[in-house]
Amino acid sequence: KAGVTQTPRYLIKTRGQQVTLSCSPISGHRSVSWYQQTPGQGLQFLFEYFSETQRNKGNFPGRFSGRQFSNSRSEMNVSTLELGDSALYLCASSRTGMDTEAFFGQGTRLTVV
Amino acid sequence: AQSVTQLGSHVSVSEGALVLLRCNYSSSVPPYLFWYVQYPNQGLQLLLKYTTGATLVKGINGFEAEFKKSETSFHLTKPSAHMSDAAEYFCALALYGGSQGNLIFGKGTKLSVKP
Question: Cβ B101–A4 below 8 Å, yes or no?
Answer without folding.
Answer: no
